């Protein structure tokens, strides 16, 4: 590889971030993206035992809704594949049962969003249920997918070739993502995604920077972006080690 | 019936914003576009989940 490996953050947040990775091949960048989507285990409700459900929705429908609620996922190694955590919910109408009404038996596993309406209960309706959360991977069910809208683009380099001819009309030039200008990283949203705003009257050309990728990562709240990326890298490493051991004589 | 918990397309949790969106844009007279921007529902796949939703619990509950 030509460029040296390097990571630089463009935007940082708990649930949403953008960062630049240099010195990786397109294959590795895509491997990382796929690991974030399908290979990082998260907790989600998988089985529900209904004690009472007199609401307007069927047990199965409510079980699906409960399953889709993101749960905070404990640190790596705390839980293994077959461990379960029990959560219970008991809400009586009139009122709405929210994800925040789920009571967990384990402090590490809590609903990440408390405001998700599960079911609207009318007078005399009641929802009482017990649910088992399991740790699984996104490739088995979308509810275990910790990374949401994970993607990447090439970093783009903009170079000024000179001035536009004197009588030529300025045309808009739309670029999305992050551009590099003299080593400085600028998200295109800063100039309304239009290069003619940033370089008025100039002739510019745009090229992809080889082996430099700008990742956009969001999580469903199970963990932070930093946590998701490191766990994704760990799964890649674990698989590489497994392969290495398997092909040894 | 109830608002879907997640966006069908990208998997983002949208249901947590439903009640505020309903109150401000459907019941109230705020501009849905501005409300969605403020709630941080960015992508149009997630936006359509809230914009096109209709709560039906009140409609079916008399027949329970
Ligand atoms: Zn979406």
Q: What would you report as the Rg of chain A, rounded to the nearest angstrom?
A: 24 Å
How would a textbook summarize the main sheet of chain A? 6 strands, mixed
Number of helices of chain B: 4
The chain-level structural class of chain A is: alpha+beta
**Extended strand count of chain A:** 12
Low-confidence stretches of chain B: none
Intertermini distance of chain A: 29 Å
Using the alpha-carbon principal axes, give the shape of chain B. Answer: flat
Number of strands of chain B: 0
The proportion of residues in beta strands of chain A is: 35-45%
Helix content of chain B: 40-55%
In CATH, the homologous superfamily of the largest domain in chain A goes by the name RNA polymerase, RBP11-like subunit
Catalytic activity (chain B): RNA(n) + a ribonucleoside 5'-triphosphate = RNA(n+1) + diphosphate
Subcellular location (chain B): Cytoplasm
GO molecular function, one term (chain B): zinc ion binding
Protein name (chain B): DNA-directed RNA polymerase subunit Rpo10
């Amino acid at each position: 590889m030509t460029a040296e490996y390097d990571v630089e953050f463009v935007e940082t947040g708990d649930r949403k971030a953008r960062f630049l990775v240099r010195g990786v091949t397109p294959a590795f960048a895509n491997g990382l993206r796929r690991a974030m989507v399908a290979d990082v285990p998260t907790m989600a409700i998988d089985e529900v035992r209904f004690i009472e459900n007199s609401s307007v929705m069927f047990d199965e429908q409510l079980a699906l809704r409960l399953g889709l609620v993101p749960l905070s996922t404990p640190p790596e190694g705390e839980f293994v594949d077959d461990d379960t955590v029990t959560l219970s919910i008991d809400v009586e109408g009139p009122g709405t049962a929210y994800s925040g009404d789920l009571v967990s038996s384990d402090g590490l596993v809590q609903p990440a969003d408390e405001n998700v309406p599960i079911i609207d209960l009318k007078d005399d309706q009641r929802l009482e249920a017990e649910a088992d959360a399991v740790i699984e991977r996104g490739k088995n069910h979308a509810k275990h997918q910790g990374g949401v809208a994970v993607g990447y683009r090439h970093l783009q380099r903009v170079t000024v070739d000179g001035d536009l001819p004197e009588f030529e009309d300025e045309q808009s030039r739309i670029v999305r993502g992050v551009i590099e200008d003299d080593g400085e990283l600028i998200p295109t949203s800063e100039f309304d995604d239009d290069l003619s705003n940033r370089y008025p009257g100039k002739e510019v050309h745009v090229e992809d920077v080889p082996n430099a990728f700008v990742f956009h990562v969001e999580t469903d709240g199970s963990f932070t972006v930093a946590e998701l990326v490191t766990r994704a890298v760990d799964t890649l490493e674990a698989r590489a080690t497994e392969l290495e051991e398997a092909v040894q004589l | 019936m109830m608002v879907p918990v997640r966006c069908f397309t990208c998997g983002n949790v949208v249901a947590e914003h439903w009640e505020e969106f309903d109150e401000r844009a459907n019941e109230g007279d705020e501009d849905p576009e501005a409300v969605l921007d403020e709630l941080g529902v960015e992508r149009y796949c997630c936006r359509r989940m809230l914009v096109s939703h209709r709560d039906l619990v009140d409609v079916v509950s008399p027949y329970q």
